[in-house]
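User: Hello, can you help with two protein structures?

Assistant: Certainly.
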Amino acid sequence: MAHPEPCQLYIEQQIKEGLAAGKTPYSIGKELTAMVERLFEASIPHDTLERRAARAKKKLGTNVPTPSTPSNPSENHEKRPNQVLINDKGKFQAGTAPGPGRRPKHEKPIEPYSCAMQMATIAISQLSRIPKDDPKREKAFQTVIDWIKENS
């Protein structure tokens, strides 16, 4: 079972040592793939480790983009209202819709939860188990009818 944090730390250290020793990112990726698989029981493609070593060699750091900073440092992004741009057809312009992903074409109304039909089905199921020749069958049905009249 792979442990991600020690595995990641090991990869970073080995890439740093390999680059210091003058190895190419390709050879580092090949060697690290075998070592990580043996030590951490994790399968990482060699090209992933090769790209990571190439980024480290160029001192690029990570492949995750850094957030943009405002031109005015006093400007606070959280306090700005969300601006949504709508084109002349009444549709959202690309990249301006709030929230992730595409909006659903048809929004379904949310119905309140009710368990009444499930309970009624269970009651009918249980009442149907009373044998037809049971002498108290009619009295049981009448008791249920009376209960329904009282509670409805």
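That covers the first. Now for the second protein you mentioned:
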Amino acid sequence: MNLHSLSPTLFSWIVTLLFGIGLYLTCRQLIEIAVDLIAGLADLVRRAWLPRAAHRLLALQDAASNPAREEKEGFSVPALARNLAQWRPFWIALAALAALLLFDPLLSPLALSVILAGGELYRAQVRSQHLRRLDEDAANLIVQFSSRYPINRSLLRTLNDAVSTLPDGAVRRAAMNCVARLSMNQETAKAVGPLRDSGHVVLARFAGLLADVQDTNQEVFLDTLRLLKEEVESRMELRQQSRQSLTLVRSTTRVLQVVVVAAALAASVLPNWRFYFVENARNWTLFVSMLGAAALGSFYVEAELRQLEAG
């Protein structure tokens, strides 16, 4: 049976299925947003019933944790585009829309594979850059603190000086929040909460070390701090070496991905190749299977490379 007679119905089912998946993910995301809004509203109501002094204290802590809030710009199209590009349902909807607009037995699967794979690789790359930046800032904070504390012997002053060397980011905001809490004479174990709750293993250990500074002998504290600094520096050096070693592998993978996309595009455009793959359902299934294998292979290789970098 000729695939030309089946392609409209077949692609209609494919596009309907993809739109159904996209609709499901979008609804789930909207539900999560609604839950976050309800939680934020509940927190706002809870704060409104707090005593005036406690309310003022929380306001000061929030202002200290995010000093750039007043300087934040208004609506930004590039920022909106970056946030949208990190949203998985956006890539699913874009791929489904591209397949629907092309409505071609070969170009539609190609567009689906390229857009979905490209979107996932972009999101993974952004996540990897964020984690790399978090690692670098955490290491910088610990190194700066370790070099200053033996001289100052003041937790608040040392942490404040160390924070001043950090670029704007999640680690700087968490550390500034800790400085603000310490400035208001909050208990050290609670004041270092933002660093402990940052989700970073090294920062959590650093926060645990700071929390016990008052109950720990200074010599023991300095020795532990020195060991943590050496471990952080060793981890950063190993990650840098592994990143350099994997550069060739990643470059080769990118070249192979480009070759696969170029070959699939040639098969979709060149008359002889196109006729072969649309001649019957078996050849068309072979074409789609090769695209799927290439996309899954890209995901697997990227995941392995990132795991090696993080190791």
